[in-house]
Amino acid sequence: MPSRELRAAAHTYNGLKVRHLINGELEDSPRRFSVIDPATEQPIADCPEATRDQLDRAVAGAVSAQRAWASIPVSERRLQIGRLAKVLLEHKDELARLITLEVGKPLTASLAEIQRAADSMLEITSVDIRTQVIRTDDRGVVELHFRPLGVIGAITPWNVPIALAAPKVASALYAGNSVVLKPSPNTPLATLRFGELVQDVLSPGLFNVLAGGNDCGQWMSEHPDIRKINFTGSVATGKRVMASAAGTLKRLTLELGGNDPAIVLEDAEVDKVAPKLFMGAFGLSGQVCMAIKRLYVHESIYERMVEAMTTLAQTVKVGDGFEDGVLLGPIQNKAQFAKVMALIEETKRLPNVRITTGGHALNRNGYFIAPTIVADILEGTRLVDEEPFGPILPILSFATEDEAIERANNSSFGLGGSVWTRDLRRGAQLAARLEAGFTWVNHHVGTTRDLPFGGVKESGLGRQGHAIGVQSDMEAQVVVVPPVSSQA
Ligand code: NAD
What we know:
Radius of gyration: 23 Å
Helix content: 25-40%
Mean pLDDT: 96
Bound molecules: nicotinamide-adenine-dinucleotide
Distance between the termini: 77 Å
Number of helices: 16
Low-confidence stretches: none
Largest sheet: 7 strands, mixed
Shape: globular
């Protein structure tokens, strides 16, 4: 379909009515808030804002639905979660258009997001969560059981609404829990629409979706009948969730921000790796938790790398996500746009720092910023030490690999990291020395949910995906049975 028609099709959502899914029923709310299209700054929809009473009813429905769900075989749960994934794929085009409309990302990225979300649901349900035998000997048999927690609250950010929600939902349900999901108030539409589409797929109450503001997230974190919060968002909010959850000693998975380093060794081929590094840093306009946010390049190839990245930044197509060939869309919201622009202005004032391209907003409606490359910058500046979450990349020079590793690790973040070299053995050794939850050699960004993903230090707590992630949605229980001979 030509891009203009696509755009028009998307605008049929103007005035779209979306509702919460609460205990199997679609509900409106007395209060509403506007959702803004970041490419035009125009409102797209009025979204219902959940009340405290609506949250309480969703949780009560989830509590009663969970009991029956926990008692059905895992194979049946797997089938039903497979049906959720199927609905995602059947409505791929509609959901992808909604994501592009509310997040701003290119339509190809939104389509890929839906595919990834469906894949992740299936990957999670292939994890083995059967009872394990810890030992069996003359002292008897000791088994390790995994029991569901109850109701899990899932809270998501605005950058990847469906592909971040899907694995949380699949993992919680697969482990025998019920779910209350709350998307970001900046991007609630695709998630609410997903709730509407699956209204009749599961028993009422098992899966609830509520749109709400930050206060709704806090109510969830404090709620006595929610046993765990599975949260993705910023470090600052993650700390608030942890504090709110303390009163009920909730279990937590916190997927938080990152300030990922990528280290390029002297043997890397600049022309070959630069395009991959560029998309690792600028994909989704830098609004990716595990994007490259600090690029360390060996001094012998530093200037060539700065030049290559500058050329890529000048030639990449930035614009409306519905336009053909656009690779980078806008910043998702006005507050984040203002934050990134302030960081750019502050960086411009630093002595001896070179902004080789970008450094300004685009002269058009929407929250667009030109891809910005910053050279000759050092640690101790906000751009290097903090998470910008926008299309701006600092490139730093290093002399030895030990120095690069030390500087990369000198951060309160620890989400991802990568090493780029033609020597894979050396790359693997250095990648393992990075203080991060997920590291790559010659790659950056992207995971599948058969692998455990999560951060160390202030980038998070716990892992999602893999048996490690699913088991964190469960409680371990040891059952000790004495030998038959010990019976009275
Ligand atoms: P945010 O922390 O502002 O909001 C995330 C969610 O938390 C939203 O749904 C929001 O309504 C809710 N919330 C806000 N205050 C709350 C409170 N007091 N209690 C409970 N919930 C509350 O994050 P954002 O700006 O939407 O997203 C960007 C951040 O998310 C970046 O830091 C990015 O790195 C991070 N992120 C991390 C991952 C990961 O997997 N580690 C993935 C994507 C994004």
